Amino acid sequence: MQLVFHSPSFSFQLLRIIGQTYYGGADIGECLSTAYSIKEGDIESWYNEWLKTADRIYKYAEDCLSKGHNISAREAYLRATNYYQNGAAFYLDTNPSDPRIISTWEKGVESFRKAAQLFSPHVETIEIPYDGTTLPGYFFKTGQDGYPNDSQKEVVRPTLILSTGLDGGQEELYFLGVAAALKREYNCLTFEGPGKGTVVRKQKLPFRPDWEKVVSSVIGLVLSRKQEEVDPQRIALIGYSMGGYLAPRAAAFEDRIAACIADDGVLSIYDAWISQLQSIRKDIENRNAAVVNAVINTIMNFDIGTKWKITHSMSVFGANSALELVEKVSEYSMYDIADKIKCPTLLLAGEKDHSFTGQAKKLYDLLKCQKKYILFRTEEGAEDHCHIAALSLANQRIFDWLDEILAKR
Is 246 exposed, middle or buried (0-12, 13-18, 19+ CB in 10 A)? Predict the structure, then answer.
């Protein structure tokens, strides 16, 4: 689905931002006016225009807050969060040493945390003990009306743990799934693990393929909360984008997960990447670093999307070259462990997914557990990666399935 830009990468990223309008993460006019001010293919122009918009909306929020208009302030803070992180900060990763990466990203975190204090009850900022350090998270409690409210009555509810993929931050998870879950009376926990968001930017922890080690720490935190609040038999896990590998990987080893959702499902990250590098596949397999690095570096010079993907991925996987990056992602595979998943599992796919084409169906075919596969189609406006232009439809199908699965427990 092309929007405003000829660049597939710019178009997709704009669609990602504007697609979050349904859950309060954007306003269409703000997005389009920003996009039409951006020079085609110009990363600095992308940064500058989105920063202007983010700063302006953030100022609206501050002004509203100072006058006691808390709902208006919360809504503006939420939009500013998206504009800072998925807008201004996004392509800065093409230069990992750019000091604006952290400052712009943290501005988005700050904006979200100000919004969090304007929910009732407040969204909790939490720290999850993990491997000698802590991971950042948020805990969202639902109310009887489907949104956080002032009710003091504790009700045991199912808990949904949400995880991003290669590049998203946990703040974005509010728009992708948390808002929809709260309406359906789920408590939610979002977190950032190694390789993600603030953790990789400030703690310098890269991704790890044995993601169950991370999720086990998160579930431990969930179960440490009050018994009147958390039902230990109804803990579900959803992973978005590359999280479509991470969530099933965790479910293969973590029996406390009652249901797993992969949006989109991923069998092998290596397979997905190598399918786009067929011309140098033999060089990759023979570890011909000179050829592999030269070819990928050349592609990066002509394609913004590839440049972003490679430079960002090298940072979050802890790789020093293109070849080393491809070798590292080869460890992220479900081939030998898919049959270990015991909990009911939902795999989603987009008809024109550009990142993990065909991967969800391949993973589905290897599962031995109760399972369901949903393909989102072009005629539904949901064909793109993670169905970013059809979040309402995606969440309808996700939560209808999840409601039915957890009702049996």
Answer: buried
Angular region, 4: left φ>0, alpha ψ -120 to 50, beta rest: left
**Helix or strand run (H / E) with residue 348:** strand 345-350
Which has the minimum average pLDDT: 285-289, 335-339, 382-386?
285-289
Spans of all domains in the chain: 1-118, 120-268+332-409, 272-329
pLDDT at residue 299, as a whole number: 87
**In the chain, what percentage of residues exceed pLDDT 70?**
97
Q: Which fold has domain 1-118?
A: de novo design (two linked rop proteins) (1.20.1440)
End-to-end CA distance of the chain: 39
In angstroms, rounded to a whole number, what is the distance separating the alpha carbons of residues 279 and 158? 48
DSSP state of 229: T
In contact, 330 and 273? CB cutoff 8 Å: no
Burial class of 34 by CB neighbour count within 10 A (0 to 12, 13 to 18, 19+): buried
Q: Is the peptide bond before 283 cis (omega within 30 degrees of 0)?
A: no
User: Of 175 and 291, which is predicted with more confidence?
Assistant: 175
Q: How far apart are CA 54 and CA 56, in angstroms?
A: 5
* Bridging pattern class, strands 133-140 and 187-191: antiparallel
As a whole number, mean pLDDT of residues 88-99 equals: 94
Q: How many CB atoms lie within 10 A of CB 407?
A: 9
**How do beta strands 187-191 and 230-240 pair?**
unpaired
CATH value of 120-268+332-409 in 6.20.20.10, 3.40.50.1820, 3.30.450.40, 3.40.190.10: 3.40.50.1820
